[in-house]
Amino acid sequence: MPLRNSKISGLITKQSSLGSVYILYNRVLGACVDYRSLKLALFGAGRVGSCVARFLLSNADELKIRTGGLDIELIGIGVKDLSKSRELDASYYTDDLEGLILRADVVIELIGGLHPAKELITRALQVGADVVSANKTLISEHGRELLALASSVGAQFLYEAAVCAAIPVIRPLKDSLSGDVIQKISGIVNGTTNFILDRMESTGDSLENALKVAQDLGYAESDPSADIEGHDAAAKATILASLAFHADIPRTLVYREGISNITQETISAARASNKFVRLLAICERMANDTDISVRVHPALIDRKHPLAAVRGNKNAIFVQAKLAGPLMFYGSGAGGLETASAILGDVVSIARRYKAGSIPTSEIWIDNRRKRSVKVSPIDLIKTRYQFVLFAIQSPEALAQIARTFAECKVLLDSLVQSRVDCSNLHTKLSESDVIMRLVVVTEVVTDSAISSVIVELKNCSHVVSIVSVMRIEQGGFEETGLALPETA
After folding, report:
1. What residues are annotated to the active site?
2. Is the full-model pTM beyond 0.85?
């Protein structure tokens, strides 16, 4: 841990060639220093930052007890614009970010985004401060670099709040399950999209109307693209996979597909087959045990599936470990208070290390000493079952043509259900004598590339009016686990 009040820290910086000497000094003599207080600098005065600041100021005595007698002192809040009206006394706010970093033992970064968050965290680590962050975007893209810097200088970089806020999943993956083998992680990690899909299912709303309700309730941003298009979930999947598989997973290799194409026809077809539509983040080992898959996409899940009971804007993560077996983490994955809970948990963890004089560590997802070969499989090679919903002209020839199309693409069918539909709302020119049928086709396990071929061929079928939806069906042996969550409103 950095001895920020020591004269030596001013003579030997961690950026210099004598940095290793300084780190050794910290580790040998750190336990001899009787820390009485821990100085915190907070960057970001938004909803989460305000919750963290309020709790620090109003619960100082309780936090002192939890840290074994260490005072946790909020020395300032770094902001860009001092002219804005703020919640706390004006004396707490400063635009001198460099000066605030130099006075802090711990820097809490709640700005979000890549810049200037990356520069602030880098600077804080360089001068010896520990760092706590909730920045999933930054960590998913630059986590290896920042954790390597923290490790090289003997500082801590903690980020429990970066994935699913109050749900404790980062620390279990880093510590509790570090001796186990993670086989698969499946999760609902974005509350906004889960709220939208749940509302579409329960009320019959369109995606656009459900999104508007989410925005009115504060669950979605004015620009919801990061949630709707799966960017938020993909960043979280990157972090989870990197920890679960002890590897450096490039964010660019994570397959991403959002919910913008989900319609009421998709929802209705799912309901008819006793399933829910959910946006899932999936990280799993492939059959060869060396390759992995990391992906985000909508999928159909059975109504008995534990994740099917995750309603509204809640999150849940299902972990399957070789020794521990199935584990479920469930709760609020966003919100000011919820994120503040995870941030403060990391702060207390750092404070206890200061008080105990123990040596801090920041895990590196992968370094040269323990490099392992991990290949991220492209989505084309992933095998799963699919459900097609088609509108087609009702005739024996149509059924034969569609079945032949799947067969020619070497895709086996599990089931095909036919029903008549009202074609008055179809935006397709049809003859008055045409009768339209809805076909719900479920395939056997097949690769994504084979399904892509089927879609191309179906579009050329003369009897197919439209392809309403093509959805993956999530498997994973959940039925055998016996796990279930109570349904919530």
Report:
1. 236
2. yes
Lowest mean pLDDT segment, chosen from 60-69, 70-79, 317-326, 366-375: 366-375
Facing residues of 93 across strands? 77
Name the CATH superfamily housing domain 8-165+337-370. Answer: NAD(P)-binding Rossmann-like Domain (3.40.50.720)
Q: How many CB atoms lie within 10 A of CB 361?
A: 12
The domain made up of 380-473 has a fold known as Alpha-Beta Plaits (3.30.70)
| CATH number for the domain whose boundaries are 176-332 | 3.30.360.10
- Each domain of the chain, given as residue ranges in start order, spans 8-165+337-370, 176-332, 380-473
> Residue 355's pLDDT is what?
82
Q: What is the pLDDT of residues 149-192, one digit of tens each?
A: 999 999 999 999 999 999 999 999 999 999 999 999 999 999 99
